[in-house]
Amino acid sequence: MKTALLSITCLICSLVLFLPAHAQHGPVTFAGLKDSMAVQPRPVVIELYTTWCSYCRIQEKQIKRSPTLQQLLSEKYYFVCVNAESADFAAFNEILGQVALQQLAYPAWILLDTNYRMKDFHTGLLKSGELEDWLIAK
Amino acid sequence: MYQLPVKEKIMLQYSYNRHAQNSYYGQTPYMATQHVGFTQLYWDKQLGEKHNLLTGASYRYTWYDDNTPGTLSEDGKVNMPAKTPLPGAFIQDEWSFAAKHKLLLGYRYDYDKYHGSIHSPRIAYKWAPNVDNTLRASFGTGFRVVNLFTEDHAALTGSRQVVIAETLKPEKSYNANLNYVLKIPMNNAFINLDATGFYSYFTNKINGDFDVDPDKIIYDNLRGHAVSQGISLNVDAAFAFPLKVLAGLTYMDVYQIDEDDAGIPQKSRQVYAPKWAGTFTIGYSFPYNFGLDLTGNWNGPMRLPVQRNDFRPDYSPWFLLANVQVTKKFAKGWEIYGGVKNLLNYVPEYALMRPFDPFDKYVNDPVNNPNGYTFDTEYNYAPLQGVRGFLGIRYNLYQ
């Protein structure tokens, strides 16, 4: 029992610590998210990007340079980066359910509560300060 | 476009196009009708992990009729519309032979009833060591049948007589391209740089000869070769504040080496082709949904057709055409915009030669026309409109 709990905690820690470091648009699947949510529910923040979006690259650089943002994203939330043109995005729609995403622009920020219900949605580049305020306030 | 309801990815494309022309050039009518039917079937297949195959066949049928001698029978009595079937087939493989390398090999075959078999191979290579750097190189051949009247309306609308010295053969070329894309992500900006070098060698090119006779444009086949080469640089910059900058610069060297009447090869630079050309767009979004856009394009000197002892320079000057526009967006997709075109009020200095005597009636007048100039409209290199304002409303559907 103890070893099982220890290994699960290690798994979550590695997932959670791995995610922000690799948050620079690494491959994140929903299997991983679902597992972590099952163990420790947290609100989820999803960043939708595309390979051709230049503002997404600026966003990525700004997150890298801000330790407070990295801490927020790794401790208070589960941070998921999804390529809007990949198969991951299709799996995504299933979680969001009936939520209508009108007029998508990239980077798109989606905030979900612990029950996968959409709490907030923002399109466009969010400067580090603005992003911090948005994440803290929710 | 229609995708066939089979497991394999087979697409069918088809189009039909009809053009009816009813024009008068002075008192000369030019009436023409053209029907073009096109269909293409292709199969897109992924073979294993490394090869992507594309193969297909196409058929284009062109029916063309006009009121010129070009579509009359040999004896000039029966109207014979030109009917051109053009079947073709192609095959192409995109081979990812190594992790960051891709090689494309393609071949196309067309059969034209007048020009026989046309072979068009091509090869292309791409190297992308990471997401921010990409190098591309390609080589291929070109083949084009020229239809002067439908393509070169300057021949019909200008002041000169068009002379077609012999049956025009198709234009053929060999082309090579080299391209490099560099992306620079920064904390407050993202810069996309694009550099391209191109080289085309034409074994036949149909260029109008404006130099031999000021009253004529003469079209014939090239006895020699023509070259079109150059370098183009483009910058696309996005910033963390609402500024967008686009700028481009091109250097082009276009010339031909053609034998003159004595059989001696002469090198001549292409008319109307500047060596240097540039373009820019600067856009900024202000609060309260206002936007400002500044655009411009500038050209270096280009060779222009001049007459004997012409007082006009044979090269055009450097010039810049700049425009500015302000846009205000309202709710529900409505926008109001206004601005100024040709802000610097640049107008070419010499537009028409002897516009008061368009039919050359008083040309042989040694007192008033000692150099024997004739009416000529071909000396143009920029729009003749000066600074002007504009205002408009735009409604966007689906917004």
From TrEMBL, chain A:
SUPFAM superfamilies: Thioredoxin-like. The keyword Metal-binding does not apply. PROSITE patterns: THIOREDOXIN_2. InterPro entries: Thioredoxin-like_fold (IPR012336), Thioredoxin-like_sf (IPR036249), Thioredoxin_domain (IPR013766). Residues 10-138 form the Thioredoxin domain. CDD domains: TRX_family. Keywords: Signal. Residues 1-23 form the signal peptide. This is Thioredoxin family protein.
